[in-house]
């Protein structure tokens, strides 16, 4: 699989698109952590920090599919870069005004979330036109999930490093400036400028008219709740075991575990039905959350965080295949954005829920939330197994070639039984 990753990265524009997307998504990936640390530095409570992070997440959840639909209709550059600039400006306002007045703080984080560009969905829409072959696209999905975990491993460390060297305020500003530069790198690339969505049936529901996609979104809501609750539950634990540095290592531990799990998962081609495989992966994910309630010392807890993250990237990579399988023609960016949105909503609910749970029962109760949420996600997948396992619909492959970049539309493949 290492050779497969190298083959993809050697493809023209692939490394630039992957790197630019990851850098462009850095503000979004670190927003919850940065907001929590900033609010604490301003003297705010855990509940306020969780509430502001939740508002950001909910606004992001609203904006992603809306902006994703605009990308499908109008192309990437006209949507992605202006959105990135507006999001960064809003977060900068929050960084300089703080939590007083509170209405302005809520408005600023809401605007920052709302205008977060759908770079994640946009990259997955670009892979078919950049790589052409179905097996390469599926490998790219796995590589994409692994690369994200590098960002989620490094991101928390970057936040805590900025806080240590400068301040929580500086962390918010610097990360958002870097994110704008990443988005710019993507939208000025030839594949992004040339990409056009395939023909789509006019329907107000867009991608949501797919029963399979709805089933997948229902399960991923609870995966997001699990991950979001860990973000908040880890704060009081870290306060008792070493402070912000420990918090950064705990968050990085989840990303490291997902990085390892995603790399192993991508090391082979998987036979069998991806819907069934997703059930198994989510089951293991839920089980690995349970040991967090033991709350051992900082080193052991970091190792448990690594274990908790092992199945996250495989779950995401498998879900990418199912999204591509069930997304209606002409809605690929919107469909992937809905997955991001649902995950973000879940994470926001998790952060909002964990704040009062932690204040009422301590960190141990907060760490109990992810195990329960993971179990509910598995129940949803089991209940909708037949819908998710429905035969893949073969869409017409758009006529595009390397010699005609202006027709780099939306090639679609049947997912079949491969991940």
Give an overview in words:
The protein has helices spanning 2-10, 14-24, 26-41, 46-74, 77-97, 102-114, 119-131, 134-165, 168-187, 190-194, 211-241, 244-265, 274-289, 298-309, 312-326, 332-361, 363-383, 385-388. It has 419 residues and is mainly α. The longest helix has 32 residues, at 134-165. It has a single domain (2-394), classed as Growth Hormone, Chain: A, CATH 1.20.1250. It has 18 helices and no strands. It is globular and about 50 Å long. The model is unreliable at 394-419 (pLDDT under 50). Helix content is 76%, strand content 0%.
CATH C-level category:
Mainly Alpha
Number of domains: 1
Strand content: under 5%
> Structural class, from secondary structure content?
mainly alpha
Which whole number gives the mean pLDDT? Answer: 82
GO molecular function, one term: transmembrane transporter activity
Organism: Streptomyces pseudovenezuelae
Pfam families: MFS_1 (PF07690)
Protein name: MFS transporter
Keywords:
419 residues, globular, disordered C terminus, membrane, transmembrane transporter activity, MFS transporter
Describe the SSE topology.
Layout: H1 2-10, H2 14-24, H3 26-41, H4 46-74, H5 77-97, H6 102-114, H7 119-131, H8 134-165, H9 168-187, H10 190-194, H11 211-241, H12 244-265, H13 274-289, H14 298-309, H15 312-326, H16 332-361, H17 363-383, H18 385-388
Helix pairs in contact: 2-7, 2-9, 3-4, 3-8, 3-9, 4-5, 4-6, 4-16, 5-6, 5-9, 7-8, 7-16, 8-9, 8-12, 8-15, 11-12, 11-15, 11-16, 11-17, 12-14, 12-15, 13-14, 13-15, 13-17, 16-17
Protein name: MFS transporter
GO molecular function: transmembrane transporter activity
InterPro entries: MFS, MFS_trans_sf
